[in-house]
Design a protein that fits this description.
By secondary structure, this protein is of the alpha/beta class. 46% of the residues lie in helices and 14% in strands. It folds into 2 domains: 232 residues, Glycogen Phosphorylase B (Rossmann fold, 3-Layer(aba) Sandwich); 166 residues, Glycogen Phosphorylase B (Rossmann fold, 3-Layer(aba) Sandwich). It has 17 helices and 12 strands. The strands form 2 sheets. A 6-stranded parallel beta sheet has the order 3-2-1-4-5-6, sandwiched between helices. Strands 9-8-7-10-11-12 form a 6-stranded parallel beta sheet, sandwiched between helices. Helix 1 crosses helix 17 and helix 4 packs across helix 5.
Length: 417
Amino acid sequence: MNLIVFTSSYPYVRGGEQNFLNVEVRHLLDEFDRVVFVPETVEGSRFGDLFKAEVDVSYAEYLASRSVYTIFLKGLFSPLFRQGMMESNFPLFSYKAYRRLVAFAGKAEITHQWVINWLDRQKLNGQDCLFYTYWFDQASGGISLAKRQVPELKLVSRAHGYDVFEEQYYDPAFFPCRAAVLELIDRVFPASFAGKTYFIDRYRFFSSLFETALLGVPDPGFLSRSSQDGIFRMVSCSMIRSEKRVERILEAVLQAALLRPGQHFEWTHVGNGVTRDDLQNLANKKFPANAKAFFPGYSDNTALLQLYRDEPFDVFINVSETEGTPVSIMEAISCGIPVIATAVGGNVEIVTTQNGILIDPNAAWEEISSAMFYLIDHPGEAETKRKGSRYIWETRYNAHLNFSDFARRLKEIRLES
């Protein structure tokens, strides 16, 4: 039995897929005779240890060899383009919507042709294969077109953030050809309960296709320590981009330190971005003597976990304006760190009163600093939330349990008649 996994870049280092797929691959190999990773791009270095999994870069090469003009023409004459225009939520009077639809349909057509050619080269029929797209995007659309030719093949997809919540990521708010693809896909696995609810509300006719499949991280093998010297230590981890609103954490720490001059604060932000040095300089300039900020950048998951092992942290902070279910929060709670997070996307599932504090999606510095003060002023409850973080990881976001269950579910779907 063959499992063909379409990714954005994995096993090449670009984006965050490796945080999950490095663990998931072992469980996929337990259930399938053959696992083939098919990345869309092959930039950057490649992970060396994939166990017995294969990598086929011909799809990335095939896509890269097609010009923008070719993609446009293929999209314009694709049945997906016509179907997409007929879907009820298509914005008929938006130029951006047509451009997005053409690009989606064009890449889907190229994917469709690659899949048919690949099956022929491999001398495989559809009954031998389960196609699994890590993102619910044009690859899913292209494989659905191939399924029209080879109806016996099976297709499933995960779905995370940008490929789920249309209003949060797109203007106008629509994702091309959803209904057309859902007519042919066998299952869609949102990575959060919020994602499943969103899909069912928006595509009620296809509600039986949606199953939540939570992601997870491995056990780090240690628990983080709380501060014992009177300093309140905070950590955040993300790329430094506008939607992550890292500057809002900086403002909250600054104002908290000004409001409580007798309390010492330290904040570490782990993550890269073009404004990292600017933020460090701003903190150095504006923070009073009782506050410090550190921007060490991000190297890899191993270094992050070493930081959590070596340094005490009293809270993890996420103030993003949109999220799926952040791996950064999963990593923090696996180490037993309480969390302050905006109530967006999957944050509302991974952060509860048991392990942290949810704040308004548009929380200003006042609400963020107020949550900090609550943990400072209630050390007993803060300690309880540390235990709650670890418990939520153990029961919901344990990678080995979640990925083992998911791999078995994929095999069941392939074996269904």
